[in-house]
Write a structure and sequence with these properties.
heterodimer, A: Ferritin, B: alpha+beta, Ubiquitin-like (UB roll), 18% helix, 21% strand
């Protein structure tokens, strides 16, 4: 069992941190624009949870890298090609159904992910996982309840939900991908078997879709690449909003 | 979307086990489970409590303000209902 290098441990953490950061940023776009006040608060609460997770992941990545980059530096000063989030989280918010579908597919993955990471050999990762699993359980409940109500709702909500799931279904493979770094992290006792999360994910997703009287999407195309830095055109715009302030006013310290 | 289809719910939060649920406000939700989720999001952001009750506002029955005199004034001058005639020794702390 060979240990991870500092750079490898950093890269492993950055993947999870970037997922949380970009998804949190996307949800933040709903602030002030949600269909009802209660959902405005719910979505931004979830966004804050995710940004908090991103902060912990990126802080740990910066610390193990040991070159003086903290979580702010990693979040605000990397460009598109250096981000390692999955393609799913950078997809546009679209209508409420698209946002809920994206969240649903992510949350169904995040729960077994953090449950597994709670046994990581890395103490900081264990701490992140123990906190994030509770947040993710609530997120998953929230998005699942909405999938059920939108799917088994009006004709319009059902049609929109079907469209949303069809649009996002093809991005699922990246969640369960095991590349060389994943395999090495698993062998070192730091990482987990992401492919092994798939049965739990499928079980939950299929059960909720059944209760929502929604068909399993028949979409067969699959796309990956975010984890390798090959992103869709959306990420550039997301980072432009996220990073503008830090890049334009790098010396600003007081708000 | 018919927001008028979302009934109003009154929210009660219990700060700690054993204490009373306190009324903290109201919100709209399509059903009881979403009302609890919404209450959790809207009313427990700052560690306010450990238990949530939600009740449809239409299930709350309130006394009529005009009946105040009839309902509450008679108890104003019945001092024998208050336990205030005991000599409590100084060392007894919680009474």
């Amino acid at each position: 069992m060979s240990a991870l290098t500092q750079a490898e441990r950093r890269d492993y953490c950055i993947r999870f941190g970037d997922n949380a950061l970009i998804l949190g940023q996307r949800l933040g776009e709903w602030c002030g624009h949600a269909p009802v006040l209660e959902e405005d608060i719910a979505l931004t609460n979830i966004a804050l949870d995710l940004v908090g997770q991103a902060r912990l992941w990126l802080a740990h990545a910066g610390a193990v890298e040991g070159e003086g980059r903290d979580e702010d530096a990693l979040a605000m000063k990397r460009d598109v090609l250096d981000f390692r989030n999955v393609l799913l989280v950078e997809q546009p918010n679209g209508d409420f159904a698209h946002t809920i579908a994206r969240q649903f597919l992510y949350d169904a993955w995040a729960v077994p992910l953090y449950q597994a990471l709670a046994s990581s050999g890395d103490e900081t990762i264990r701490g992140i996982a123990e906190k994030a699993v509770k947040e993710s359980l609530y997120h998953r409940r929230h998005s699942s309840e909405w999938v059920i109500r939108l799917g088994d709702g009006t004709e319009e909500s059902r049609a929109r939900m079907i469209t949303a799931l069809d649009d996002l279904w093809g991005f699922q493979d990246e969640l369960f991908e095991m590349d060389a770094l994943d395999a090495k992290a698993l062998a070192a006792g730091v990482g987990i078997d992401l492919a092994a999360l798939r049965p739990a994910w499928s079980a939950h997703v299929e059960a909720v879709l059944a209760e929502a009287t929604l068909p399993l999407p028949g979409v067969t195309w699959r796309v990956t690449g975010g984890r390798k830095g090959r992103h869709s055109e959306h990420l550039g715009y997301i980072l432009a909003e996220l990073q503008f302030l830090q890049r334009a006013y790098p010396d600003a310290v007081r708000w | 979307m018919g927001k008028r289809d979302w009934p109003l719910w009154e929210v009660f939060i219990q700060p700690r086990a054993g204490l009373n649920h306190k009324h903290v406000g109201s919100l709209r939700a399509p059903d009881a489970d979403m009302a609890i989720s919404n209450a959790r999001d809207v009313y427990t952001r700052r560690g306010e409590g450990e238990s949530i009750w939600v009740v449809r506002s239409t299930d709350i029955h309130a006394s009529a303000p005009d009946d105040r005199g009839m309902l509450y004034d008679p108890s104003d001058d019945k001092i024998y209902r208050h336990p205030t005639f005991y000599d409590v020794p100084e060392d007894v702390e919680h009474m």
